[in-house]
Amino acid sequence: MFYIHHTVCISPQNTFLEVDLEQLINCSENKLYAKDFPVDGIPTALLRRMGKAVKLGVASSLPLFKFYDKLDGIIIGTANGGMEDCIKFLNQIMQYEEGVLTPTNFVQSTPNAVASQLGFLSKNNGYNITHVHRGLSFENAIIDVGMLLEDYPDNKYLVGGIDEISTYNFNIDYLCGYVKKENINNNNLYNCNTEGSIAGEGVAMFVVNNNSVGATSKFRALETIHTTDEKELQAVFHKFLYDNLSENESIDLFLSGENGDRRYTSTCESIEAMVNVDVPVARYKHMSGEFRTASAFALWVSNYIIQIQHIPTHMLKKNKQRKETNNIIIYNNYQGFQHSFMLISKNN
Amino acid sequence: MTKVYVSGLGIITSIGDSLESNRTGLIEGKCGIDPLDFFSTKYAESLLFGEIKLSNNQLKDSLEIKEPGISRTSLLALHAMNQAIIDAGLTALDFARRDTALIIANTVGGMCLTDELYQDANQHDVGSEYISSYDCGSVGIFLQARFGIKGIVNTINTACSSSANAIMYGSRLIKKGLAKKVIIGGTDSLAKFTINGFNSLHILSPGLCAPFDNNRNGLNLGEGAAFLVLEGEKDIGNKKIVAEVKGYANANDAFHPSTLSENGDGPFLAMEKALTCADLKPSDIDFINTHGTGTENNDEVESKAMIKLFNTKIPPFTSTKSNIGHTLGASGAIEAVYCILNLLHQEIYPSLNFKEVITSTGLIPEQLYYKTKLKNVMSNSFGFGGNCSSLIFSKV
User: Fold this and answer.
1) Mean pLDDT over all residues of chain A?
2) Which residue does chain B place closest to A168, by CA atoms?
3) Pairing of strands B243-252, B4-12
4) What's the first-to-final CA gap in chain A, in angstroms?
């Protein structure tokens, strides 16, 4: 579909500026917050008005607009956008009984605030869009950019996924049963055998184009499906493998979206069981936490593993790392009904 | 490259709950903007809204919704989707195919349930029935599950241009072979969130909005939903075709979160790129359904961008927001359906409440109903965050 040239990730782990994934950073109270990050080049007054999601977007991506002379568009996947500002504005509505309110939180709260602030701050008049389809928001951003690059093969686009933990969406996720009732440590996420996961947040951005020169990896295929039927899901994965991998190609890593919620473990394992028994299997949600665009983090980690040819030990679930990691399959499962498969390969 | 055709339409707005009643309302210059009957807000006394005069329970009864947790935004969407799929003759067999997609656009999702959301977001007790219905994705997820859609499912939010971008995304899925049939819908319902948000920006009119009038003083918020079924030319067979999606474009104004740039860079680029996409010249456009919100900023900037593109030969134009108000994430789809009605019946509907020309631009919207020859029509949608999109539909 396209080539990945440049990536940036701000996450609960050491992924920004100096990357070090060996040391797993732990969580408290079932929340994996993104590590503190500097935001450069933004006037303080403007920065103060930005919610966390917008800050994450700006801090990660604005430098890319300086690095590249021209990016031809901004394609963002975010399920909630500026949820914190959204509820802040809602709280104002309730507390002041629909009185005189300031528009800052309202303007910052719209899910398209990240893409639009990036467009505004980089003076980018190109294609600008925000996909908000919950656990498949980032995947739709990928579909979108894939179509754009078919039409405009000489263009370069910024595509990414971003979501924040706010007090409010944590509360709602907790009431939905998405978060574990008992406090756990993320290094024990997969051994709990209870319902729910740990909350996470972060941003992963990618500069992509159709040119293999200088690229780290090739994004080869994506498939999505809404289903709770394991047989149907398996059939989709079977076809995905058949359509996208030639007979002499091996899968060198299966990166599973297991999130420690016992309701979905068996589904993840049934998909995992469809690749050869000797394929290394790794997991990532103990690093990122569970959130609706966690698959963007998974893509970033996969690209990084291809780059450094090393899989951190705490990620591995089964089998040893192979001599070469060339082809990675990422499977994500959001709350048991939104599924995606991605295939990326080392750029040779 | 394969052509993209529209094979079915569905709509509900404050001037009608069907395609026919909307057309009649447009011909008669009906205004569906009036005091609130159902929605509760402090501004019920002082502002006018394009409210659909059906309660949530009436909607649920007519749609036979028994399950809990379905927001008004989803109910309006289901109402319009039912019409569109019947119109296009889609069946369960179509929904179950991996190449049938569903693309939804909205901006408020379940946030119309302000009080419930406030409770659920601020307490640690038991969630309400709407606990998983607040996000924008909830509408598409509800419809996906109800109809068993098995292709690509997506939700787009680019503020007021959301559903124009959904039509663009869906058309591109067909052109790229990622879908053969695409069901597209825009929906939004009245919400304290948007009423107070637009009010805090001082762009709500105390009276009826007056698009392109020199004394315009803001917009009226409305609610509604519209759905379109798109199919590729190779797969549409002998089905009736109501229009062709000829061109589309998305550009960013890159100026300010809630105001358009003085000369309308984003609006100009969106219209110009849509013409390029459609392989048409400005003189090929026979009519424009403008964004035309009735705010001081939008109408002047949109006029300037139209003048820059069309020069002295501005096509006839109207703003149907004078009939139904600004339906936000639904407006792009609703106005697309209105454009297709223009084409199907070869007629132009009057823009309402215009009295005095804007001195700096001098553009006058069409104020009378008349029949005329229309081949290509344009629809503009510009959203907060500078998200500008234009669509072009053509008679088949």
Assistant:
1) 94
2) B121
3) antiparallel
4) 15
For residue A328, the model assigns a pLDDT of 98
Strands (E), chain A: 2-10, 31-32, 73-77, 127-131, 157-163, 199-200, 202-209, 217-226, 253-256, 281-283, 316-318, 327-334, 338-346
What are the C-alpha distances in Å from A267 to residues A32, A200, A234, A241, A262? 24, 21, 9, 17, 10
Q: What is the pLDDT of residues B10-20, one digit of tens each?
A: 999 999 999 99
Q: Say yes or no for a CB contact (<8 Å) between B132 and A176.
A: yes
Query: In chain B, positions 252-291, which contact chain A (CB-CB < 8 Å)?
Result: 252-258, 265-266, 269
So what's the pLDDT on residue A141? Answer: 98
Angle between helices B265-278 and B296-310 (to 10 degrees): 40
Contact A175, A96 (CB under 8 A): no
Q: Evaluate whether A148 touches A155 at the Cβ level (below 8 Å).
A: yes
Q: How far apart are CA A335 and CA A233, in angstroms?
A: 14
**What's CA B224's distance to the chain center, in Å?**
8
Percentage of chain B exceeding pLDDT 70: 100
For residue A5, the 8-state DSSP code is: E
**Separation of alpha carbons A213 and A7, rounded Å:** 16
- In whole angstroms, what is the distance from residue B40 CA to residue B37 CA? 8
Q: What is the pLDDT of residues A306-340, one digit of tens each?
A: 999 999 999 999 999 999 999 999 999 999 999 99
Q: Model's pTM, two decimal places?
A: 0.97
Check CB contact of B199 with chain A, cutoff 8 Å.
Answer: yes
At A110 the pLDDT is 83
B150 touches chain A (CB under 8 A): yes
Question: Residue B211 has which token pair?
Answer: 């698009």
CA–CA distance, B301 with A110 (Å, rounded to integer): 23
Note the ipTM here: 0.97
- The arithmetic mean of pLDDT across residues B198-226, rounded, is 97
To the nearest whole Å, the CA of A36 is away from the closest chain B CA by: 25
